[in-house]
Specification:
single chain; mainly alpha
Length: 188
């Protein structure tokens, strides 16, 4: 049963982000700016699609590279469901807190105000924390070495993007952003 929650997590996660982007597009705001600054961002897409397939394959017994698991524990699997649910709730809170400032990628042409309230009063990057929680939760559900590799591999592009965003925010907002950084941690 917990495996179905892993699949549902991916569907809900993508649904929340894409729905938010589409609603903003209807208001004339281009929320998807992915790959505009660095075209290598598009290398993330095939890795994400393979990850999604891996989770679906493990759930619905599709062909996959490996079905080997590190452990088989229903309790740990349900702890994984908790992490997935926590990640989804954090993502939802992040999207709500972002308001009209939500973007996928850096929007240098139409920046909005610096968001420091809501969940952003506790973490400067709650969406990345949400994604990490979901990745960890799905690893606990499936305990696959492939998903463990994905956790390790995801750290680099997440952190790279955070550093790029921080550089942009520092240049655009200056002292306001630096004061925010002094008050709120980067992740947790």
């Amino acid at each position: 049963m917990s495996k179905y929650f892993a699949v549902l997590t991916i569907v809900v996660m993508l649904g929340m982000v894409l729905t938010r982007a589409l609603l903003m597009q209807k208001q004339g705001i281009e929320a998807i700016n992915f790959g505009k600054i660095d075209k290598t961002d598009f290398l993330i897409v095939p890795f994400a699609l393979f990850y999604f397939y891996t989770v679906f394959a493990a759930t619905f017994n599709f062909p996959t590279i490996s079905t080997q698991e590190f452990f088989d524990s229903k309790v740990i699997s349900w702890v994984g469901v908790f992490f997935c649910l926590a990640g989804l709730l954090l993502l939802l809170w992040s999207l709500i807190s972002f308001g009209q400032s939500f973007r996928i990628g850096i929007d240098t042409e139409h920046p909005d105000k610096l968001i420091t309230t809501g969940v952003f009063a506790f973490s400067r990057n709650p969406i990345y924390v949400a994604f990490a929680s979901i990745l960890f939760g799905q690893f606990l559900i499936f305990s696959s070495w492939i998903l463990l590799v994905y956790i390790g591999a995801a750290i680099w592009p997440f952190h790279r993007q955070v550093l790029r965003e921080e550089d942009y925010l520092n240049k655009y907002y200056g002292n306001e952003y630096l004061e925010y950084c002094d008050q709120v941690r980067r992740y947790l």
